[in-house]
Amino acid sequence: MIEPHAPAPPGVPRSWSEGGTAQARLPVRPGIGRFLVLAGVFVCAACGLVYELELVALASYLTGDSVTQASVVLSVMVFAMGIGSLAAKRLRFRAAAGFGAVEAVLALVGGSSAMALYAVFAWTGDWGGVWSGGPRCLLVGFSLAIGLLIGAEVPLLMELIQRIRHQDAGGAVADLFAADYVGALVGGLAFPFLLLPQLGQLTGALLTGAVNAVAGGALVLGLFRRDLSRRGRWLLLAANVVVLALLGTAAALVSDFERAARHAVYGDHVRAAVRSGVQETVLTGGTRGHPLDLFLDGRLRVDGSDERLYHQALVHPAMDGGPHARVLVLGGGDGLAVREVLRRPGVLRVDVVEPDPAVVLLARRDRALSALNGHAFADPRVRVRTADPFCWLRRTRGPYDVVIADLPDPGIAASTKLYSQEFYGLARRVLAPDGRLVVHAGPVSSRPSVFWTVEATVRAAGLRTVPYRVAAGASAGGTDGTGRPTGLSQAPRDWGFVLAAPTRPVLTLDPRESLLPALNPASLRADARDAARTRPPYLPPSTLLHPRYTR
């Protein structure tokens, strides 16, 4: 602490050393200067919230567990903001220079965070357990760094606004936080409705960093330039120019970077990649020697080497259990489950409810995928509706003879409501009295607790169940428990299913309907007995308010 009447430190106005706040020498009137500072607060707050949302969105996409990622990012960031505010106390006697330096660093760190995270994920492939690998540490590191820098803004801006016109602390805090919170609102709305759909995650983050650098640099160099020495002004200007050059170069290389990263994740045979408002859809292979694979948000959804075994095991036991004139497919936008449904005689109508129109568009137009699904969507009996399956079920009454839930794996936070007791209650409501519901419930061998939680949840909705599984055998391209590719693996894979009905269903399969020797009535019953041996003593059902699935 500086003693009263002591000589002021070099570069610090004398009035500060005497315990007061120096009046700024502004190039504009104080009222205009105050407005410009609050405008800077507004812009910086908007950029700061975009950085937070960008980290949450990208980490959720890379891991699928949005609840955990949001909790980690936000809690670490808020903690770091407190530390940053304390640390900024040392800079308050040089508030203008400190704020300019903080904004330049924040623009570079926040703007490049998405690209750095995706690069580590793409080229290391290591985003496994809850805290394993470099990417997880990098996520925490970026959250910590951005939080520290955002936290340092507030005390420095408070010092700057007081230098323009001294006022009581309560009034200054009210003005500052009002601009801050309104800016956060604009940033929070701009991210999902403008930046993400129009620019994408990487370009959106880089542009935000550029805006942050321009706003911080312009405020200090334009309004408080007399508080900096000549050397300080040139250093801050050079730092901002370097930051803008780096961000601009990265933005110019985003397309090349995304292609290279995509090939690092999916291999050299990417045939289509579409980013919609719902998810990223990538098709690979489809040529001789390379089976067609479909990835949704980086998770293998369709494995061309054994997709027929999966879809026949999903569809035909439910179709064999009774009438099947009216069929509802929830998900299944790739058309492969519909292909199996249409093979059965007596099908009069198939309704497909798919949340992502991009998947259906690929299934219609991509030559390899449309050939694989037998041009199912060209059949006049098929009607496609783009809607969230949960919301759509609330608006319809059926009845349907068969409901096929061909949805993303359980255990992913985004899919939790589609594996809830409430969801199955809605599905039961649209079933005919003798109708059947079949649910893809994830692998039995690697995640038995998730599989049996699905089964317990279906039972809790008032349906009788018959769980079964189908083993796919050894795979050259293994996946983890959520379907992410893990490189070469000889581990056997399996799929678990739950067949359900208002009265106890019978697990049966007409051998004439299966085109695969591995799928027959005897193997189906044997695999069902194997699955039953993994049943835990008791698992509670999963609900919207109390999801039970864990990764």
Automatic annotation (TrEMBL):
It comes from the Bacteria. The active site is at residue 406. Pathway: Amine and polyamine biosynthesis; spermidine biosynthesis; spermidine from putrescine: step 1/1. Spermidine binds at residues 311, 334. It is an enzyme of class 2 (transferase). InterPro entries: MFS_trans_sf, PABS, PABS_CS, SAM-dependent_MTases_sf, Spermi_synthase. It comes from Streptomyces gibsoniae. It catalyses: S-adenosyl 3-(methylsulfanyl)propylamine + putrescine = S-methyl-5'-thioadenosine + spermidine + H(+). S-methyl-5'-thioadenosine binds at residues 279, 354. Belongs to the spermidine/spermine synthase family. This is Polyamine aminopropyltransferase. Residues 245-502 form the PABS domain. PROSITE patterns: PABS_1 (PS01330), PABS_2 (PS51006). Residues 526-551 are annotated as: Disordered. Catalyzes the irreversible transfer of a propylamine group from the amino donor S-adenosylmethioninamine (decarboxy-AdoMet) to putrescine (1,4-diaminobutane) to yield spermidine. NCBIfam families: MFS_SpdSyn, PRK03612.1. Keywords: Cell membrane, Membrane, Polyamine biosynthesis, Spermidine biosynthesis, Transferase, Transmembrane, Transmembrane helix. It is a multi-pass membrane protein. It is found in: Cell membrane. One of its GO terms (molecular function) is spermidine synthase activity. Homodimer or homotetramer. Its EC number is 2.5.1.16. The lineage of its organism: Bacteria, Bacillati, Actinomycetota, Actinomycetes, Kitasatosporales.
